[in-house]
Amino acid sequence: MNQFLDNPDLTLEPSVDSIRLQTQQSLKYIEEFFGTLNEQKVSFPADTKALRSLFSEKLPTEKNPFEALLKTIFEKALPAGINLPSPGYLAYIPVGSMFETAVADFITAAINRWPGLYEFAPAFIEIEKSVVRWLCEIMGMPEGSSGILTSGGSLANFTAVYTARVNKLPEEFFSGTLYVSNQAHHSVLKAARLAGFPKRCIKLISIDDQCRIRINELKNAIASDKAQNLKPFLIIGNAGTTNTGAIDDLDELAKICKTENMWFHVDAAWAGAFRLTDHGKKLMNGIERADSITFDPHKALYTSFGSGALLVKDIRTLKKAHTMDAAYLPSVDEDLETMNPSQIGPELSRNLRGLQTWLPLKLHGIGPFKNNMEEKLELTFWATEQLKAIPNLAIVTKPQTSIVTFTAVKQGASQETINALNKEILAKANADGRILLSGTTINDRFVIRLVPFGFRTHKPTVQLALDFIRKAFGETR
Ligand SMILES: Cc1ncc(COP(=O)(O)O)c(C=O)c1O
Q1: Which residue has the CA at smallest separation from atom 4 of ligand 1?
Q2: Which of 155, 212, 367, 395 has its CA 20 to 30 A from that of 422?
Q3: What pTM value is reported for the model?
Q4: 216-231, pLDDT tens digit by residue?
Q5: Would you state the CATH architecture of domain 367-475?
Q6: Is residue 295 in contact with ligand 1, taking CB distance under 6 Å?
Q7: 3-state DSSP call for residue 290?
Q8: What residues contact residue 149 under an 8 Å CB cut-off, 6+ apart?
């Protein structure tokens, strides 16, 4: 006896009235969230035990009112952990959450088009292609450069290493060696492992006093590996390390890659947008000659999470690495213009990624993004000067982009003692919850980082952070 054949359960198909009500109810909370961001704390101490017991629920069998669920999201889940969109977030990199990208995400999820095959979403794929071309233009890549939107920098770095492997090495690739500075983001090292390389193939090169890869050491390592019949095939340069924002000598790296016939990848995941400024353009000289670049709109252009990009000089290199035929899919398209995203990247099912970046860029133009990058540089350089005036504080790395690192100094104290002092100062500076700094280790020294990168972070917030830092230094001996 069929139970549902003529009497289906239509719960999952809400009426337009019900859609309107859910949207309006959600919007009330979202307006409140965006409207009070400047007053919200950046960090909330979380009672993880209480949260775990609240959310460790059994598969629901009962209905719940929508309003009650919104309350759970906004009143129980949101005030726990780190509030990235807050202006006081001066700790790590991704600081997206432009409202416009949230709208784009909502539309994206609502229409749920599939951009894996061109014929399923030709207009949206053209939008993605436009976004990729704009990013290539920002990075100064040659006309005809292209690429693919990814879920983020980790997937972009993985796709780059794998693509370099396929294009530069034979099927049996274990003699291949790749070179990065010891400041490379860990996703780069993970990418190399995921692309099949054992640790011995990954050559970590040391850094100079500005945390940039040592070019001579790199050249020597390549020469020595070649002498042992290894096949150096890839250099990965940093355009904005995560630790200190350092930018390698990309011009030199490009020259070495050309001479040695190696693939040149640059990880510009977060700092790439500084190329919109004259300062950044000068520091990144050479990036335009890269074979591939990682550039994440969800960091550099403040879109919501799930928005990275791998830009390539020659789209055919991506195609060579990723094209697969399958009986149940339409035949592989040879036309580069109408190429299927699933043939130039690792994913088949993927969300539409273009709108998150397309909507804000079309709405505002690139101008405000450039102005924001200029402001962030000015803020960081200004903050560095203010920090220098604090007694017993020394700058460790001068900012190349928008990260400055600093440390406590104490005559005659061991590095261990200084590390402990820095940790104490960091905890004190963050204690109020309105600003959040972070720490990192550079050559075994624990240092404090100030990262004024968020678009809502302006001088008054950095001033507040400086006040907390000054006070924390004053209280710590
Ligand atoms: C320089 C750099 N590369 C890659 C990544 C990884 O990006 P994602 O977190 O989007 O995977 C990050 C993340 O902060 C980064 O700073």
Answers
A1: 153
A2: 212
A3: 0.96
A4: 999 999 999 999 999 9
A5: Alpha-Beta Complex (3.90)
A6: no
A7: coil
A8: 128, 131, 132, 307, 308, 309, 353, 354, 357
